[in-house]
Amino acid sequence: MASDRRVVREPTRVPLLVILILATLTLAGLLANEAHQAARFHQVTAERALADYAGFAAWEMVAAAEENVHLAVAEALSPATGRRASSPYEHVPPPEILLPAAAATLRCRGDEASRYYFRLDFRDGAVTTSGAQSSPVLLRHLADTVTADYRRSYRPDWRYAVIFDSALGRDRAIVYGVLFAEYQAPIAAYGFVTCASAFGEPLFTRALEHVALFPNSSGRGTGGDSLVALTVTLPDGRELFRSGTTNALPFAGTASMERLGGLMVRAALEPEAAARLALGRSVPGRLPVLIGLLAVTAALAGVALVQLRREHELARLRADFTSSVSHELRTPLAQILLFGETLSFGRVRSDADRRVAAETIVQETRRLIHMVENLLHFARSERGLD
Predict the structure, then answer these.
(1) How far apart are CA 80 and CA 30, in angstroms?
(2) pLDDT at residue 187 above 90?
(3) What dihedral angle (degrees, nearest 10) is formed by the CA atoms of 139, 145, 146, 147?
(4) Residue 69: φ, ψ to 5°
(5) How buried is 146 (Cβ within 10 angstroms: 0-12 exposed, 13-18 middle, 19+ buried)?
(6) Whole-number mean pLDDT of the chain?
(7) Taking a C-beta distance cutoff of 8 angstroms, is the pair 234, 95 a contact?
(8) How far apart, in whole angstroms, are the C-alpha atoms of residue 290 and residue 286?
(9) Span 24-40, average pLDDT
(10) 50, 142, 166, 304: which sits with the fewest CB atoms below 10 Å from its CB?
(11) How far apart are CA 249 and CA 64, in angstroms?
(12) Pairing of strands 263-269, 252-257
C-alpha cells in the first residue's frame, strides 16, 4: 500500500511579526526625532525671545538716558536757543548768557578748570568763549567740528546734540544747541565743553534705578541693575560706563544714541534675568529619556525576534515530530489492516497461516497501544501534569 508522507505545515506568521516590529521601531524613532525637533525649536525660540528682551532693555536705557539729558540740557541751553531769532541779521548774545542755567548741568569732579562755554556764529564762523581760554587752533577745531556735526546729523526739531572729541582734551564732550531764524535758517550754535564721564555713571546709574527694562516688569525701580549688565562705549570703542558682571553673557542687545554723540549701549541679560522671564526658563532636556525609551524599544524588539526565532524552530521540530510519529503509527496500522483483510476475505491456506495472521494483528496492536501510551505520556509531561 502506498503511503502518502506529505505533511501540511501551518502557515508561518514570522515575516508579518517582523514587519510589525520594524514598523514599531520606525515609529518610535520618528516620534523621538519629532520630540527632539520640538525641544530644539522651543530652545531656539526662547533664545530669540531672550535676545529680543536684551535689545528692548538696551533701547529702554537709550530712551531713559536721552530723556534725562534732554530735560537738563534743553533747560540749560534755553536762554540762548529756546527762542527763534527775529531775523537772520539779529545780534546774538555772548556765551555768558548760558552761565546761570548751565552752570550745574553735566558737571563732573575736577571739571571746573577745563569747562567753558562757547558761541559759534554760523554767519561769519567766529567763535567766542567764556571760561577757560583756549588756543586759536583749538577754537578753530571747535568751530569746524560743530559745523560739520550740524551739517551731518543735526535736525531742526532737536534741542541739543553731543560730540565726543579727544582733540579738545582727553575724554571731552561738546554739548550744543542751535539758534534758528525764520525758515530754519541757522544763526549760531551755543554750548559748553565738559568731561565725557558726565555721560557715564551719573546718567546711567540714575536711569537703571528708574527705568522699567522689561515689558513684564511690575513697575519702575524693580532693580534693573541686578537683571542687566550694561556697557556704554564711546564712538571710538572706549568704555565709558559698566554695570553688572564682566563675564561674557549669551543674550545681549545693542542700541546707538545718535543725539548723544553715537554712544553705544549694550545690555546683556544676567542669569537671574533669564530665570525670571517666562520664556527664559530652561526646559529639562528630554533627549536622553527619548533615547533611553528608543533603546528599550529596540531591546524589546530584539527579544521578540529571538522568541519568534525560537517559536519558529519549535514549530519546525513539532512538525518533524508529527511527521515521524505519523509514519510510525501508519506502519502497525498497515500490518493490522493487511492481516485483517486477509482473515476477512478467507485467503488463509491453513490454520498455521491463520494463527500467524492473528498473532501479527495482536502484536502490532500491542505495539500501537504502546506507542499511543508513550505519546500520551509525552503530552502530559509537556503540560506539566506528571
Answers:
(1) 73
(2) yes
(3) 110
(4) -65, -40
(5) buried
(6) 79
(7) no
(8) 6
(9) 77
(10) 166
(11) 23
(12) antiparallel
Q: Where are the extended beta strands (E) located within the chain?
A: 116-121, 127-131, 161-164, 172-180, 186-195, 228-233, 239-243, 252-257, 263-269
Q: What is the pLDDT of residues 61-110, one digit of tens each?
A: 888 888 888 888 989 999 999 889 888 899 999 999 998 888 888 887 76
- Percent of the chain predicted with pLDDT > 90: 15
CA 44 to chain CA mean position, Å: 2
Residue with cell 511690575: 218
Contact 144, 126 (CB under 8 A): no
User: 121 with 188: CB under 8 angstroms?
Assistant: yes
Among 352, 316, 258, which Cα is nearest to 59's?
258
Q: What is the pLDDT of residue 145?
A: 93
Distance CA(126)–CA(119), nearest Å, equals 8
Q: Binning pLDDT at 50, 70 and 90, where does residue 218 land? A: very low
Q: Which 3 state secondary structure label does DSSP give 116?
A: strand
Q: How far is it between the farthest Cα atoms of the chain?
A: 166
* CA atoms of 37 and 26, how far apart (whole Å): 16
Beta bridge partners of residue 127, listed in sequence order: 120
Rg (CA), the chain: 50
Residue 106, phi-psi category: left (phi > 0), alpha (psi -120 to 50), beta (remainder): left
217 has pLDDT over 70: no
pTM of the model: 0.61
CA atoms within 13 A on the CB side of 85: 21
Environment class of 246 (CB within 10 Å of its CB; exposed 0-12, middle 13-18, buried 19+): exposed
What sign has the CA pseudo-torsion 182, 188, 194, 195? positive
The half-sphere exposure of 28 on its side-chain side, counting CA atoms within 13 A, is 19
358: which 3 cell numbers? Answer: 492473528
**Residue 255 phi, psi dihedral angles, 5° rounding:** -150, 145
| Pairing outcome for strands 239-243 and 252-257 | unpaired
- Phi, psi at 192, each rounded to 5°: -145, 160
| Cell matching residue 152 | 551731518
DSSP assignment of 332-356: HHHHHHHHHHHHHTT---SHHHHHH
